[in-house]
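Example S7 (structure tokens).
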């Protein structure tokens, strides 16, 4: 008897959580079609010419690995080094862009984001990278999030 009541209570709580999450998801979906800017996610190798940084290469060969990003909107190139992919970097984008990117492509465990604006056309960009091996500067660049159109059309 007690057990049945206990399970009923648990089930009620579980349903509450499920309903809450469904409501949150609906809200996010509504936001993404109304207030959030339109964004897309592309594999990192479509925008960057290097997607793997390996610390042993830099140590043994005394080279600095570079990855060149090309802006899809204006063609401007930006070069990155492994040290740029550092979780302590402050987020460079405003809250609306961060929310749009978070909604389109939520970060998973051991993933971090490098946010920046194209230095020429100011388009917002997020590079999602993996740094599971935190003691080294090994980095795998995974995805790039960007505005679908730039400049934004109202
Ligand atoms: Zn640009």
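Recovered sequence:
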């Amino acid at each position: 008897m007690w057990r049945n009541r206990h399970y009923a209570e648990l089930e009620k709580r579980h349903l509450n959580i499920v309903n809450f999450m469904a409501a949150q998801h609906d809200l996010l979906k509504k936001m993404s079609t109304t207030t959030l800017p339109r964004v897309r996610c592309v594999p990192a190798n479509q925008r960057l010419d290097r997607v793997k940084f390996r610390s042993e290469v830099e140590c043994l060969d005394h080279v600095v690995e570079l990855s060149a990003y090309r802006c899809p909107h204006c063609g401007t190139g930006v070069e990155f080094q492994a040290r740029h992919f550092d979780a302590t970097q402050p987020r460079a984008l405003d809250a609306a862009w961060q929310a749009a990117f978070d909604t389109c492509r939520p970060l998973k465990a051991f993933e971090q984001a490098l946010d920046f604006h194209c230095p020429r056309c100011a388009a917002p960009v997020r590079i999602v990278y993996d740094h599971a091996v935190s003691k080294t500067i090994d980095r795998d660049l995974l995805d790039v999030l960007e505005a679908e159109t730039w400049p934004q059309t109202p």
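Notes on this example. Helices lie at 2-34, 55-61, 95-104.
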